[in-house]
From TrEMBL:
Name of the featured protein: Uncharacterized protein
Record's keyword terms, sorted: Signal
Source superkingdom: Bacteria
Record's signal peptide: 1-21
Length: 316
């Protein structure tokens, strides 16, 4: 019986030690404090440097007739409107000599260059969002794995304690008083393990000094993370067709309506998600990863409008 009790004590000590274990894996520690998702893409511009909203511009009727509104807005986002106006004016000229053809070719090359560069910018910022999502998910899975491992140990310990109590009180201990005391002790131990399983929660320090979610939530006037064309695209809303919410505002609405975070609050959760980091649970890390995934999806929508613009330009 003494050996069995010693075994129970050892199991308890092992569980206590594992629940207080620190992060020893060097790769995990690096993921917690550093991110390699940003490849030195820092943009320096002000709100005045962003394109003028499309509905405030005076566009030629020829240009409006040639392109759809979404394509015009995309052209405006990537700074292509002046080039398109020149291209249309040149195409309307009756004289088509060698100089004319050279000018047309130069304008086409300029348009293709801006479309290709914009596509690379979209891919770059989208890949950073995807990388941050994967980084966060990895830590969440690591934390969940530790919790599952501890819960398995607690379950095994509860089974061992319950079985030991049944054996000891079922015939090993002849003294009734000792048997009752053993039954009560093992019952309390078994209930304690169940109680520990119920509160098997763990948090971990996770840092993110470069925080794209912060710019989306607060609507930064000069974000360093998003290139000007992407930031314009996310923040533009066309009042003429009744759309009063930009893509950025729609993203925030989804976060709040789906219960990922409360809007217009100064809660600890807001400081955690949109600050530089802190103690996260696995559920909060998964939630943060989902927010990055939603942001990435909306940025990638820009590629659809960019493709539509390219196809419409081919039909000029």
């Amino acid at each position: 019986m003494k050996a069995l009790l010693n075994t129970l004590v050892i199991c308890t000590l092992v569980l206590a030690t594992s629940s207080c274990a620190t992060v020893k894996n060097a790769e995990i520690r690096n993921l917690l404090s550093h991110s390699n998702c940003n490849q030195r893409n820092v943009y320096n511009y002000t709100e005045a440097d962003l394109p003028t909203p499309l509905h405030l511009q005076q566009l030629s009727e020829a240009l409006q007739h040639k392109l759809s509104y979404n394509s015009l807005n995309m052209a405006n986002a990537i700074g292509l409107i002046p080039t398109l106006e020149k291209y249309i004016q040149l195409k309307a000229q009756p004289k088509q000599d060698a100089e004319y053809r050279l000018s047309i070719l130069e304008l086409k090359q300029d348009m293709d260059h801006k479309i290709n560069m914009s596509s690379l910018e979209i891919s770059a910022i989208s890949s950073e969002m995807d990388c941050e999502e994967e980084r966060t998910s990895q830590i969440a899975n690591y934390l969940s794995g530790r919790a599952d491992n501890r819960e398995s140990k607690l379950t095994i310990a509860a089974i061992v304690v319950g079985a030991a109590g049944a054996i000891l009180t079922g015939g090993v201990i002849k003294n009734e008083t000792a048997a009752n005391a053993t039954g009560i002790s093992t019952g309390i131990a078994e209930a304690s393990f169940g109680f520990l399983m119920f509160f098997n929660k763990e948090s971990i320090e996770f840092h993110h000094k470069r925080n794209a979610l912060k710019d989306i939530w607060f609507g930064a006037s000069n974000p360093e993370i998003f290139p000007p064309a992407v930031w314009y695209y996310l923040n533009y809303a066309n009042p003429e067709d009744g759309v009063q919410h930009s893509l950025r505002e729609q993203i925030i609405d989804k976060w709040t309506h789906l219960g990922q975070i409360e809007k217009d609050s100064k809660s600890e959760l807001e400081q955690l998600y949109f600050g530089e980091g802190g103690k996260y649970s696995s559920e909060q890390l998964n939630n943060r990863a989902d927010m990055y995934d939603q942001l990435e999806s909306n940025i990638n929508l820009m590629k659809q409008d960019l493709k539509a613009l390219s196809l419409e330009l081919d039909r000029f």
